[in-house]
Write a structure and sequence with these properties.
9-stranded mixed β-sheet, 5 helices, Structural Genomics Hypothetical 15.5 Kd Protein In mrcA-pckA Intergenic Region, Chain A, Alpha-Beta Plaits
Protein backbone atom coordinates (compact mmCIF):
# COMPACT_ATOMS: atom_id res chain seq x y z
CA UNK A 1 0.00 0.00 0.00
CA UNK A 2 1.23 3.49 -0.88
CA UNK A 3 1.84 5.89 2.02
CA UNK A 4 -1.12 8.11 2.90
CA UNK A 5 -1.29 11.52 4.53
CA UNK A 6 -1.57 11.39 8.29
CA UNK A 7 -4.41 13.91 8.42
CA UNK A 8 -6.48 11.78 6.02
CA UNK A 9 -5.82 8.70 8.17
CA UNK A 10 -6.92 10.52 11.33
CA UNK A 11 -10.03 11.90 9.65
CA UNK A 12 -11.12 8.42 8.60
CA UNK A 13 -10.36 6.79 11.96
CA UNK A 14 -11.57 9.28 14.56
CA UNK A 15 -14.25 11.20 12.67
CA UNK A 16 -12.75 14.67 12.34
CA UNK A 17 -12.13 16.87 9.32
CA UNK A 18 -8.64 16.99 7.82
CA UNK A 19 -8.24 20.54 9.07
CA UNK A 20 -9.18 19.42 12.59
CA UNK A 21 -6.70 16.55 12.23
CA UNK A 22 -3.99 19.08 11.35
CA UNK A 23 -4.91 21.04 14.49
CA UNK A 24 -4.47 17.88 16.59
CA UNK A 25 -1.10 17.25 14.98
CA UNK A 26 0.01 20.86 15.54
CA UNK A 27 -1.10 20.62 19.18
CA UNK A 28 1.25 17.67 19.73
CA UNK A 29 -1.51 15.18 20.40
CA UNK A 30 -0.40 12.77 17.67
CA UNK A 31 2.76 10.69 17.53
CA UNK A 32 4.15 8.43 14.82
CA UNK A 33 6.53 5.69 15.91
CA UNK A 34 6.93 7.36 19.29
CA UNK A 35 7.81 10.82 17.97
CA UNK A 36 5.64 13.93 17.65
CA UNK A 37 4.00 13.97 14.23
CA UNK A 38 4.60 16.80 11.80
CA UNK A 39 2.14 18.53 9.49
CA UNK A 40 2.11 16.92 6.08
CA UNK A 41 3.45 13.61 7.42
CA UNK A 42 2.73 10.40 5.53
CA UNK A 43 2.33 6.95 7.04
CA UNK A 44 1.91 3.35 5.95
CA UNK A 45 0.74 0.15 7.61
CA UNK A 46 4.08 -0.26 9.40
CA UNK A 47 3.66 3.06 11.21
CA UNK A 48 2.51 3.18 14.83
CA UNK A 49 0.13 6.12 15.18
CA UNK A 50 -1.06 7.28 18.59
CA UNK A 51 -3.64 9.94 19.43
CA UNK A 52 -3.74 11.07 23.08
CA UNK A 53 -1.36 8.17 23.80
CA UNK A 54 -3.78 5.58 22.40
CA UNK A 55 -2.81 3.49 19.39
CA UNK A 56 -5.00 3.91 16.31
CA UNK A 57 -5.00 0.63 14.32
CA UNK A 58 -4.13 0.98 10.67
CA UNK A 59 -6.45 -1.82 9.61
CA UNK A 60 -10.00 -1.45 10.88
CA UNK A 61 -13.14 -3.50 10.39
CA UNK A 62 -15.83 -0.91 9.80
CA UNK A 63 -19.28 -1.33 11.30
CA UNK A 64 -22.44 0.53 10.38
CA UNK A 65 -25.61 0.50 12.48
CA UNK A 66 -29.03 2.03 11.86
CA UNK A 67 -31.22 2.44 14.95
CA UNK A 68 -34.72 3.69 15.62
CA UNK A 69 -33.92 5.89 18.62
CA UNK A 70 -36.80 6.09 21.10
CA UNK A 71 -37.92 9.30 22.74
CA UNK A 72 -36.27 9.86 26.10
CA UNK A 73 -32.78 8.64 25.17
CA UNK A 74 -29.76 10.87 24.62
CA UNK A 75 -27.11 10.31 21.96
CA UNK A 76 -24.11 10.81 24.24
CA UNK A 77 -22.17 8.05 25.95
CA UNK A 78 -23.02 9.44 29.38
CA UNK A 79 -26.53 9.67 30.76
CA UNK A 80 -27.82 13.20 31.28
CA UNK A 81 -29.70 13.43 34.54
CA UNK A 82 -32.32 10.70 34.58
CA UNK A 83 -32.26 10.29 30.79
CA UNK A 84 -30.62 7.03 29.64
CA UNK A 85 -28.24 6.87 26.70
CA UNK A 86 -28.97 5.00 23.47
CA UNK A 87 -25.79 2.99 24.14
CA UNK A 88 -27.81 1.23 26.85
CA UNK A 89 -29.72 -0.37 23.96
CA UNK A 90 -26.61 -1.76 22.26
CA UNK A 91 -24.51 -4.85 23.05
CA UNK A 92 -20.95 -4.46 24.25
CA UNK A 93 -19.37 -4.97 20.82
CA UNK A 94 -21.12 -1.83 19.52
CA UNK A 95 -20.36 0.40 22.52
CA UNK A 96 -17.38 2.09 20.81
CA UNK A 97 -19.31 3.18 17.73
CA UNK A 98 -19.95 6.91 17.37
CA UNK A 99 -23.24 8.48 16.39
CA UNK A 100 -23.37 10.22 13.03
CA UNK A 101 -24.84 13.53 14.13
CA UNK A 102 -27.43 13.51 16.91
CA UNK A 103 -31.10 13.55 17.80
CA UNK A 104 -32.12 15.37 20.96
CA UNK A 105 -33.69 13.54 23.90
CA UNK A 106 -37.25 14.39 22.90
CA UNK A 107 -36.79 13.32 19.27
CA UNK A 108 -36.96 9.83 17.79
CA UNK A 109 -36.13 7.98 14.63
CA UNK A 110 -33.17 7.14 12.44
CA UNK A 111 -29.73 7.50 13.99
CA UNK A 112 -26.60 6.04 12.41
CA UNK A 113 -23.61 4.72 14.35
CA UNK A 114 -20.22 3.75 12.92
CA UNK A 115 -16.48 3.63 13.50
CA UNK A 116 -15.90 4.92 9.95
CA UNK A 117 -14.85 8.51 10.51
CA UNK A 118 -14.75 9.28 6.80
CA UNK A 119 -18.40 8.29 6.32
CA UNK A 120 -19.41 10.26 9.42
CA UNK A 121 -17.68 13.34 8.02
CA UNK A 122 -19.34 12.98 4.62
CA UNK A 123 -22.77 12.59 6.24
CA UNK A 124 -22.51 15.55 8.61
CA UNK A 125 -20.29 18.24 7.08
CA UNK A 126 -22.46 21.10 5.71
CA UNK A 127 -20.70 21.12 2.33
CA UNK A 128 -22.17 17.71 1.45
CA UNK A 129 -25.76 18.87 2.13
CA UNK A 130 -27.16 15.45 3.07
CA UNK A 131 -30.95 15.67 3.16
CA UNK A 132 -32.76 14.61 6.31
CA UNK A 133 -36.51 13.98 6.44
CA UNK A 134 -38.64 14.30 9.58
CA UNK A 135 -42.25 13.73 10.55
CA UNK A 136 -43.29 16.70 12.68
CA UNK A 137 -46.38 17.32 14.78
CA UNK A 138 -47.21 20.75 16.22
CA UNK A 139 -49.36 21.95 19.09
CA UNK A 140 -51.61 23.76 16.58
CA UNK A 141 -52.21 23.96 12.86
CA UNK A 142 -49.46 25.69 10.92
CA UNK A 143 -50.73 28.82 9.22
CA UNK A 144 -50.22 28.73 5.41
CA UNK A 145 -48.41 32.07 5.57
CA UNK A 146 -45.98 30.71 8.15
CA UNK A 147 -45.37 27.60 6.05
CA UNK A 148 -44.57 29.81 3.08
CA UNK A 149 -42.29 32.02 5.18
CA UNK A 150 -40.22 29.03 6.30
CA UNK A 151 -40.07 27.33 2.90
CA UNK A 152 -39.59 30.38 0.67
CA UNK A 153 -37.76 32.95 2.76
CA UNK A 154 -36.51 31.33 5.95
CA UNK A 155 -36.83 32.43 9.57
CA UNK A 156 -34.01 34.38 11.21
CA UNK A 157 -32.61 32.62 14.28
CA UNK A 158 -29.75 33.57 16.59
CA UNK A 159 -27.32 31.53 14.47
CA UNK A 160 -28.60 32.66 11.08
CA UNK A 161 -31.57 32.12 8.75
CA UNK A 162 -33.37 28.78 8.85
CA UNK A 163 -35.07 27.50 5.72
CA UNK A 164 -36.52 24.08 4.91
CA UNK A 165 -39.26 22.43 2.87
CA UNK A 166 -42.58 21.57 4.55
CA UNK A 167 -45.24 19.24 3.14
CA UNK A 168 -48.59 18.93 4.99
CA UNK A 169 -49.80 15.31 5.05
CA UNK A 170 -52.78 14.23 7.21
CA UNK A 171 -52.00 16.41 10.27
CA UNK A 172 -48.31 15.54 10.00
CA UNK A 173 -45.78 17.95 8.56
CA UNK A 174 -43.01 16.38 6.49
CA UNK A 175 -39.88 18.47 6.86
CA UNK A 176 -36.96 18.14 4.45
CA UNK A 177 -33.76 19.85 5.53
CA UNK A 178 -30.09 19.71 4.54
CA UNK A 179 -28.66 21.57 7.51
CA UNK A 180 -27.87 20.12 10.91
CA UNK A 181 -27.85 22.96 13.41
CA UNK A 182 -28.74 22.29 17.05
CA UNK A 183 -32.51 21.88 17.52
CA UNK A 184 -33.02 23.88 14.33
CA UNK A 185 -36.50 22.60 13.45
CA UNK A 186 -37.82 23.13 16.98
CA UNK A 187 -36.34 26.63 17.18
CA UNK A 188 -37.70 27.61 13.78
CA UNK A 189 -41.28 26.72 14.66
CA UNK A 190 -40.90 28.25 18.14
CA UNK A 191 -39.89 31.55 16.55
CA UNK A 192 -43.37 31.66 14.99
CA UNK A 193 -45.21 30.65 18.17
CA UNK A 194 -45.48 26.87 17.69
CA UNK A 195 -44.33 24.00 19.90
CA UNK A 196 -43.09 20.80 18.28
CA UNK A 197 -44.83 17.89 20.04
CA UNK A 198 -43.26 15.17 17.92
CA UNK A 199 -40.06 15.06 15.86
CA UNK A 200 -39.30 11.75 14.18
CA UNK A 201 -36.53 11.28 11.59
CA UNK A 202 -37.25 8.81 8.80
CA UNK A 203 -34.42 9.47 6.33
CA UNK A 204 -30.79 10.57 6.41
CA UNK A 205 -29.15 10.84 3.01
CA UNK A 206 -29.63 7.52 1.23
CA UNK A 207 -30.49 5.72 4.48
CA UNK A 208 -34.08 5.29 5.63
CA UNK A 209 -35.90 3.93 8.64
CA UNK A 210 -37.84 0.89 7.51
CA UNK A 211 -39.62 -1.57 9.77
CA UNK A 212 -37.57 -0.92 12.90
CA UNK A 213 -39.47 -0.61 16.15
CA UNK A 214 -38.29 1.92 18.77
CA UNK A 215 -35.01 0.71 20.22
CA UNK A 216 -34.34 -1.81 17.45
CA UNK A 217 -31.23 -1.64 15.24
CA UNK A 218 -29.72 -3.44 12.25
CA UNK A 219 -26.30 -3.54 10.64
CA UNK A 220 -26.25 -1.85 7.25
CA UNK A 221 -23.94 -1.32 4.28
CA UNK A 222 -22.71 2.19 3.40
Amino acid sequence: MQPIRLNKFLAERIGVSRREADDLIAAGKVTVDGKPAGLGARIDKTSKVCYNKKVIPFETDYLYIAMNKPVGYVCSRRAQGNAPTLYDLLPKEYQKLKTVGRLDKDSSGLILLTNDGDLAFQMTHPKFKKEKIYEVELDKTLEPLHQQMISDYGIMLDDGPSKFTIIHDNNIYIVKISEGRNRQIRRTFAALGYTVTKLHRTNFGKFELSGLKPGEYVTIKP
